[in-house]
Write a structure and sequence with these properties.
The chain has twelve helices and 26 strands. It is α+β, with helices and mostly antiparallel strands. Strand 2, helix 1 and strand 3 form a beta-alpha-beta unit. Helix 1 runs parallel beside helix 10 and helix 10 packs across helix 11. The protein is globular, with a radius of gyration of 25 Å.
Amino acid sequence: MRRKQKTLDFDLVVVGGGMTGICAAIAAARNGAKVALVHGRSVLGGNASSEIRIHINSATDGCTKPDLEEGGILNEIMLENKRRNPYFSYSIWDNVLFEKVYFQENLTLFLDTNMYDVLCEDDTIKEIYAYQDTTETNYVFRAPYFADCTGNGTLGYFAGADFMIGSETKDMYSEPHAPEKADNFRMGNTILFRAVDRGEPVKFEPPAFAKKLTEDDLKFRVHCKKIPDFSMAEDPEEYARTSTRSSAGVDYGFWWIELCGKDDIIEEFEDIRTELYAWLYGVWDHIKNGGDHGAENFDLEWVGALPGMRESRRLVGDYIFNECDIWAARSFEDAVCHGGWSVDFHTPGGVLDKDLLPSATWVVPGTYTIPYRSFYSKNINNLFMAGRNLSATRLGLASTRIIGTCAVCGQAMGTAAALCVKNEVSPRGLLKHIDQLQQTLLKDDCFIPWVKNHDEKDMALSAEVFASKEQAGFPAQDVINGVSRHFEGAWNGWKCDAGDKLTLAWKEAKTLSQIRLTFDSDFATPIRITMAPLRQAQQKKGLPKVLVKSYRLNFIKNGETVFVKDVDSVTSRLSVADFEPVTCDKVEIEILSTYGETGTIFEVRAY
């Protein structure tokens, strides 16, 4: 055989480079693991990439609950994109993702590399086999831990992991919206498009394979600038709300151009894609040539290369997250991340069910946590999983499948894998170290509702805190209260302007080598990459004005300044200042500038 073969060893191999896999791989690498990220496409991002272009929805559920915006690596990436990409270029977005992964220490990226087989012995994955098309190279990846971030649960499936498809019955978990009988329904695949206004009439000639559609075929699907009459719907007000929250115009692709296949949504992927193209071009033909839809000047500029997948396999972990956990706002003892998107359930036939609404949506009033036990396989000893193939019922997935939630799940899982390496334990064995996992996640700007910082190594927690000035309701002491964001009515931070100073003081001198500051990055204003003009209009160019731009750290001992460190050009919520060890009894944090408005320090940590 002339094909080259390479055998490589890592601590963790992550398969799948969507937002889940990206955040998992970066988190593991930053926490000391040697990581490989194996991805079958030429660009990173999965459903959020330039190939598919689904924007990153989040636990805020359409910006209605801004306190629940995801932090951590996802927020860092989106802020970096916001700084460099004011006009929502997907090419720049692709490059931001590539840079974050490719230049991350301890992380090796393999693009265009498709896993095709797995060696699993004694319920333990030993090796996976992949082929890189561009270099004609076979790879053998070996590691003590593997992570399935494929979305379809492909790695787990190949390894023999237990998995679920379709709907669970009501008597299994007492889920309020579960069916009485099991079924093989699943949410379908969608191809998006983009259209632009050319300022003059533009003709459209459909391809021969395009569907011939009528207004009756689309009576419950928003497809014009004018909102249609929903009086025939079961719940007209609710349908109008949920159907128009993305965009009611004709310039951004419709999420409801959706197909689920007949039996196996993975096996039928190519057939579904072909059929989706027929529907997409048929919808556009109807919009352009089937009556007045306000699209005379619109031109079809881009059509997705791949469908975005919502649901396929779900791997089985030690805990199966379910709809009851969502409504109970469960705070699990092993909670590692959060969600808050609606229980958003799409019609089984997609566009084929023309007499049904395309989705049913039950709004989640607050947040909930997701347990660590849903992120490792029940029967494969060294397999992690995160994203839409996590251990959940179909109704549990209906909320957790959103990209923002998948991404924070990925960071939690990747961090867990790195701690397994450090502690030399199995994924299940890490349950004995769950506090270490939670505290590490909080340290890295993740949010776990109702879990506070009590890191015994954080010397800021034992400091006296005072400020040059305080605004009513924003005491300086809140920077060490253990919560690093506005949550449940409490601000949890100290507001500051240029020239303001915050001081941490200890009765006995401390030797420090790192200060970590968490700033306000304006969760109320969206920062996601998107093609939707409605969502673009909600955003502001550049970094948030409330973000602190630069600050100075003055280290003081016995009244004298012994070291000064300036930090310039802050671009993320979490700013980590490393320096050679310095002994001091005070640290003075001086705000030098913000990006234009009053800022906030939510948390100070000292190590």
